[in-house]
Amino acid sequence: MKLKSTLLLAALTSTALHAEVNISGFASINGGKVLSGTGVPQFGLEPTFLADYPIVSAYKEDFSFSPESLIGLQVSGDLGDGLSVTGQIVARGANDYDAEFEWAYVSYDINDNWTIQAGKKRLPLFYYSDFYDVGYAYVWMRAPADNYTWQIFNYEGINVLYNGSIGDWGISANVYTGREDDGENKLLSDFFFQTPTREIWEDILGGVVQLSYDWLELRFTHMQYTNKRFRNGEASMWDGKDSRDGKFYGLAANADFGNFFILSEFNRLDLGGNLDTYMISAGYRINDFTPYVMVSNFEGEGQDAEKHDTQAVGVRWDFHPSAAFKVQYDKVNDDSVSLAVAGDSKALTLGIDVVF
Prior knowledge:
By secondary structure, the chain is mostly beta strands. It has two helices and 19 strands. Strand 11 (216-231) and strand 12 form a beta hairpin. Mean pLDDT is 93; it is low at 1-7.
């Protein structure tokens, strides 16, 4: 990743005199604690609220700002004639604020409707994937962890974007392909297996279609890939094979009636057995305040499968044109048997999201 960072910085620097360079940013200063919880005694895990699975943002009984606080910068250089280069650097409290390039890609506008991109980007599995780190962009403290739970969230590859309309419907689409090789996957290495784990998703092929009309927005997504995994250098085996194929399906449906809104997302990952997740949320805008409720659920197939759900209530206060204060209470029920994740918990978190 250091080489990619150096090349991107060199490209942006070398074009600074010949292109328009834009810098924007976002930050979240969040804190919280577990009010009560069971933990997972058989694994030696104390009471824990796992707020973000991929980067292991875990709150404990002591108040902390580290799990979810972050700051990000996005740098883009417009080279003219439809060509641009973009990089995004994020420093996370969960990673000791070590800054890393998470996005680095080149875009070319073929015409007013079609764009082709290549490089490292966010894997667009979910509705909030493209702006997942920008807390200001959504109403809750975070996108629900039960839904946004997979190990891989970026990929390297190529994608084609379309933006247009059909009658009164706005339409956008994205077709993408690529792979991701995470040498030491944080979720698997630090939390689930607690041993160095390399996670590979290859032969990724996916598509997204999003439709919008007045108060209604619909998003459909599908992706397929091949999964390989190495624990302590040894290949994981599934039914005698060192790889397995996965298929992901997703539907998001949002309705906004002005003050009142409903948000929902339903996903399925087929890995030989189905893993189903959903999220349903509703809120009401009262001037600068937006109280909301949310429920989410993760359920695998089988009696011993991973199963957990979350109920949340909170409020967002837009006290500034570029900043919002949020406070949220979460109650997690972990009904997993042999695959308990973090146990039951009740947690309180609060924070400020800003864009600049």
